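Why should sequence recovery work at all? Because a backbone constrains its sequence more than one might expect. Tight turns favour small or flexible residues, buried strands favour hydrophobic ones, and helices have their own preferences. The token representation captures these environments compactly. In the example below, the structure is given first.
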């Protein structure tokens, strides 16, 4: 009799006596399963499981394809899988991996649902603008300034230690306030046509535009605005050092040194 025929008409990895000692062991010892048949049956079980899920999927989609197994056959296949040690280990591994993955997604969803975001202030940029005796046809550099920054500490301080930087998904500029601290009628924000600032950090040293703003030609010491297209800053603010590069274009000369402060409020979510 061929092995293929044995597979169809019998179950070679199942012993006939089932180990109850109703007969003498010397005459009827416990039968050992054939290793070839065990491996073949393992593949057979997996094929049956695939067919089960396929038929379940078709039934869920309410197609007219008939089901491959009835309830008794479902239970038989599940039982055969559970008694197979190799399959049992595989199922446990897959089940544990699924639980870990679902748990990870659930934790992320819970964190996203609880962490509603906050406003955070970066260190004020203190700028010293020298006397500008001519009106430049283009913008000029007003210097570079570096500051220490720790996003994790800021978030923890704002949330009483409940959340840290790992809860943050994105950071954008909420508001910028530019102030001249020593103005007079001839030297104030009206002397400048525009200002622009770029930012880089020790985690991303490619400068990106922080803001670009024009000023009205009226006396002013403070100007507040919100950038309409704020750059995503999370990748830059994950570091510990941020560097600002300041540029400006004047519409009139200045006759004294001016002190400018740029205050920024970030929307952290």
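From this structural description, the recovered sequence reads:
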């Amino acid at each position: 009799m061929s092995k293929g025929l044995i597979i169809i008409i019998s179950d070679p990895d199942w012993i006939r006596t089932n180990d109850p000692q109703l007969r003498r062991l010397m005459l009827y010892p416990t039968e050992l399963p054939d290793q070839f048949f065990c491996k073949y049956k393992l593949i057979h079980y997996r094929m049956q499981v695939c067919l089960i899920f396929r038929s379940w999927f078709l039934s869920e989609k309410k197609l007219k394809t008939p089901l491959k197994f009835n309830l008794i056959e479902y239970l038989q296949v599940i039982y055969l899988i559970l008694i197979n040690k190799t399959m049992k280990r595989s199922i446990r591994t897959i089940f544990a991996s699924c639980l870990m993955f679902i748990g990870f997604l659930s934790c992320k969803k819970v964190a996203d649902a609880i962490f509603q975001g906050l406003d955070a202030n970066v260190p004020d940029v203190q700028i010293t603008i020298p006397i500008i005796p001519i009106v430049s046809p283009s913008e000029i550099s007003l210097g570079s300034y570096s500051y220490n920054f720790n996003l994790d500490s800021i978030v923890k301080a704002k949330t009483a230690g409940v959340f840290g930087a790992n809860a943050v998904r994105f950071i954008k500029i909420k508001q910028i306030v530019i102030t001249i601290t020593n103005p007079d009628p001839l030297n104030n924000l009206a002397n400048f046509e525009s200002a622009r600032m770029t930012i880089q950090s020790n985690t991303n040293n490619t400068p990106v535009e922080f803001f670009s703003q024009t000023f009205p030609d009226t006396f002013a010491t403070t100007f507040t605005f919100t950038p309409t297209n704020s750059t995503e800053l999370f990748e830059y603010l994950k570091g510990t050092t941020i560097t600002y590069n300041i540029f400006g274009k004047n519409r009139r000369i200045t006759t004294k040194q001016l002190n400018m402060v740029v205050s920024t409020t970030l929307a952290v979510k």
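A few observations help interpret the result. The first strand starts at residue 118 and ends at 121.
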